[in-house]
Amino acid sequence: MRYSLLTSRLRLLLLTGLLAAAAPAVQAQRAAGPNRPADFLDPSFHKQRRELLRQALPARSVAVLFAAPVRNRANDVDFVYHQSPDFYYLTGYEEPEAVLVLFKEPQTIQGQAGVTEALFVQPRDPKAEQWTGRRLGTEGTKRELQMQFVADNKEFATAGIKWADFITVHFLELPTDVRDNSRDPADLFNLVATFRQQAAVPADFNPRQAELYASIERYGVANAASLKPYLENLSKQIPALAQDKYIQNYLRATTDAERQKAVAARPVTRFDMSTLDEALDRLRGVKTAPELALLRRAVRISAVGQQEVMKATRPDMGEMELQGLHEYVYKKYGAEFEGYPSIVGAGANGCVLHYIANDKPKVQNELLLMDCGAEYHGYTADVTRTIPPSGKFSPAQRQIYELVLAAQEAGFAACKPGADFQAPDKAARQVVTDGLLKLGLIKKPEEARTYFPHGTSHHLGLDVHDRGSNGPLQAGHVITVEPGIYIPEGSPCDKKWWNIGVRIEDDVLITEKGYENLSREAPRTVAEVEAMMAKPSALDDFKLPELR
């Protein structure tokens, strides 16, 4: 996943070293009104999340969050709308052109006293709804989502929020690549512009600079060994950073005492982009029981998808065809979308971590890596299996596969509450390094990263690479354990290993006593995979006419 916030990228760089193994996707708007599934998160869940976030705010402050932009696919066709996971987490609202405002202390808004939360949403519009689907509108939002204060988004500009009275204004990175719909005076473009103008956000406010400042404050002492070279490199690339006094003073510090002094000298501003970011990391990282129910279903659907595709796979099938089988299973069980573009890569394609073309006409008998995850009511699974299309691993394929499997077992064993977030990665990486040395693929331990270039774990939830503090593991965290070995053609090793790519990925819930493998229904061992592939498939007799 390509993180939008620099702090998120730094968090991964400094604490986990993850390289994403999947990319994000888009999600449709849930239809307003009756006749929809009954197992969405209850409005009380979102209300509790808002209140916990509000409690994390300092005195005399306000927090502002915007709905995600509508994204254009081509000409007059938009992508299926995907709400901001943070916005959905706090509201349950799945439509665009909206803004949420949370007040630390109760306010009076449009004559209504005691307001601590205000949601401004797009109004009902029968003509638009005939084309693009029903909207909740203000009354529907009040009724369905049980917000304290709801108003038409056109009223955001005239709501009378006293922005100047707040000591601190909290927000996440503001969307800047947003189209301005000249026919809509309260689209996202105008909502953001109204906020910037009324809250007096400086025209030259630099979110990247703010994120770097927050990173120095958060990591500047404890993670100086990683942060300092990162900032030095950025300073060489970006002239403005080389002239930034705060950043350069920090870089000149040589001891922890000097670094603490430099960190403490952060320029004062009333605009804060880090408090919300860190609070949402803490909240979203620990899953509640309602969230786990949805995650479990997403993971089980994905595991069944792996089972069914194993049974159906033949060497003469194409990557795209096999992708379609995974995604059919998802739809069959009510998963609205994929949590990210499916990765179905045979041979050399399996050695490309973000391979999503999936257009090889025949997989033949090269190892087939399938990294696929169903998204159920917003929550996504992330399950990877690697299989031999013939149904039997070759000796070389089996050696690499069993090495990755052993590494995953070591990663599982490190999954326990209180363990460092990097513990599964360290355990898995040691097994891979020792195994590659023994097989003769590498001569020095440090060469192992050539074949195992990504991290072993990431949080999982509303995002495939979800928010999380990446501190010690806690009960309620859901993470992946996904070691891999990728040996592309031309690698400096025996040719018998070329084009073997193996990743085995499971979704793990950290419990009070250890862990639970949520995706255990997907076969993992060589014997289990080969046995599943020997079973008949419901698709064996499914034949489509040949197109000429």
Automatic annotation (TrEMBL):
PROSITE patterns xref list: PROLINE_PEPTIDASE (PS00491)
Top-level lineage group: Bacteria
Keywords: Hydrolase, Manganese, Metal-binding, Metalloprotease, Protease, Signal
Cofactor(s) the protein needs: Mn(2+)
EC class name: hydrolase
Catalytic activity: Release of any N-terminal amino acid, including proline, that is linked to proline, even from a dipeptide or tripeptide
Residue intervals of the Aminopeptidase P N-terminal domain: 41-180
Record-linked Pfam families: AMP_N, Peptidase_M24
Any one of the GO BP annotations: proteolysis
Annotated signal peptide: 1-28
Keyword Electron transport annotated: no
GO MF, one annotated term: metalloaminopeptidase activity
Keyword Metal-binding: yes
EC number: 3.4.11.9
Family: Belongs to the peptidase M24B family.
Protein name per UniProt: Xaa-Pro aminopeptidase
